[in-house]
Amino acid sequence: MRPALGLLAFGIAALVVQSVAAVHLPAALVPNLSLLVAVTLGLHLEAAGGLVVAGALGYAADLFSGSLLGQHALLRALTCAGTRLANRGLDLRRFLPLAVFAALLTLSEAAAVGGLTQLFAGRAVFDRALAAVLGQQVLVNALAAPLVCAAASRVVRWTLPEESTRRSVRLAPRRPVI
Amino acid sequence: MRELLIRLRVPILLAAVVFATGITMLSDRRARREDGERGGWSALLLEIAVPVQKTLELPLSVARHGFSRYVGLVELHDENERLARRIAELEEENLQYREALVESGHLQRIVEMRGEFETPMRPAQVVGQDVSPWFRSVLLDRGRSRDVRSGMPVVTDRGVVGLVTATTAHAARAMLLLDRESAIDAVVQRSRARGIVRGTGTQELEFVFVVRGDDVREGDEVITSGVGGVYPKGLRVGTVRAVEAGEELLLHTARVEPAVDFGRLEQVFVMLRRGPTMDLLYSGDGDLPAVASVEESP
CB–CB of B129 and A26 under 8 A? Predict the structure, then answer.
């Protein structure tokens, strides 16, 4: 419970930082922190808790965005679920697989945002001009993903009770000598 | 049964999230047409976030502008803000006069216009940008407690910024002119060529106009036409940078550079007026006209 709340607070803080940073930096150069935090939720929390926190984080992202309410909530929950699935085959705690996964997720999310906006609001989001922005976003998110993941790991370690951070040692049953 | 539910809790939860967000998106689409006011948890989160963002924004702003703002220049800064607000009012007033002169040529019209135009403005600070790169909106630090309402135009001394689309007691979200959902009925000040300025999601705007000879040229100023009743007439929108012949014979497109530098948007003014279209749109009476959330030509 504590890691889930800690990561939710971390995600909301990341949203606020992202929103403020976008005032001073070009939008394409600001990493999509809520997406990356959703990835870390898939890596650090158990499935049900991760989904709930990812949904809540997405809902918060919807408030900080001009998107339809619920759009980011859905995408973040799916991101969290997708990360769990991908983590079964890939070791997403390592730099390269995580960076590649974040890049692919950015592309998938862009397609999903476009599809959902077309479906629910009846308007197109993307064209050729935005393809360049997407290219930059892919790169920035891929580079930022390991950093966000490392920060999230620290949050999880910090919020876990002390006993559970101790590594358990498995003792083999004593064999009879004779 | 209980064991089955526990085993299937993740797929059930995922399905519930998909269902709930689908419903939320559909209801939000409708809510946007009725009322942009946010309440409950949504409002609470924004109410907490805005002061935090203002606090975070401060050091970044200081770093950006140097120490000139705070080293013994606090009074000068306040004075500057007051003057900037006054300049914004005067510039728009001036544009209105020029518009009146171009249109009718009668001084009487100018006198009438002055009465129409004197709109109070509420200065607001941009405390955050959209967290999604695919949408263009900003978070303002003024809300309903300062008479800011959905549907009110947002401007700077340079020109049109956008439109307030959602409010809480102490915060508001404004959709920028650059957003793909944004569209303004506009005219070229020199030739009176009329068309629609649309956001492209990038730093440029698109002006779609009806071709009547060589009526739009590079360097032309594009201003709001006032048609649609969302933005007052004569606000500066941008400058034509290139004209592109479209595939259609009647409609051409021009690329317009916005008058406002959206990359450096910090202080804006909310015009405390809502056009008749917006009054109908945000009435929340339930009996709503079938109008889109953008300003279109009649």
Answer: no
Which residues on chain A are in Cβ contact (under 8 Å) with B10?
A: 47-48, 51, 81
Contacts of residue A61 in chain B, CB cutoff 8 Å?
131-132
Residue B152: phi and psi, rounded to 5, are: -85, 140
Q: Is the pLDDT of residue B227 over 80?
A: yes
pTM of the model: 0.71
Question: Which residues of chain A neighbour B180 with C-beta distances below 8 Å?
Answer: 123-125
Asked whether the beta carbons of A79 and A35 are under 8 A apart, the reply is yes
Fill in the DSSP letter of residue B60: H
CB nearest to A66's CB, from B9, B52, B175 = B175
Which of B8, B55, B132 to mutate against chain A (most A CBs within 10 Å)? B132
Q: In chain A, what residues touch B9 (CB-CB under 8 Å)?
A: 48
Most confident of the ranges A81-85, B32-36, B191-195: A81-85
Residue A27 to residue B103: CA distance in whole angstroms = 40
List, in sequence order, every residue forming a beta bridge with B141; answer none if it has no partner.
none
Per-residue pLDDT reduced to its tens digit, B97-146:
776 666 665 455 445 545 555 678 888 988 888 888 788 889 998 888 88
Summarize the confidence of residues A32-45 as an average pLDDT. 90
Q: Shortest CB distance from B25 goes to which of A32, A60, A69?
A: A69
Residue that the structure tokens 């049109």 belong to: B160
Is residue A61 predicted with pLDDT exceeding 80? yes
**pLDDT of residue A37 exceeding 90:** yes
Label each residue of A88-147 as H, E or C. HHCCCCCHHHHHHHHHHHHHHHHHHHHHHHHHHHCCCCCCHHHHHHHHHHHHHHHHHHHH
Chain B's closest residue to A15, CA to CA, is: B131
Does B22 sit within 8 Å of A66, measured CB to CB? no
pLDDT of residue A177: 59
Question: A-B interface: how many C-beta pairs under 8 angstroms?
Answer: 165
Give ipTM to 2 decimals.
0.74
Query: B247 CB contacts (<8 Å, ≥6 apart)?
Result: none
**CA contacts within 13 A on the Cβ side of B177:** 35
Residue scoring higher pLDDT (B195 or B57): B195
Q: How far is B76 from chain A (nearest CA, A)?
A: 23
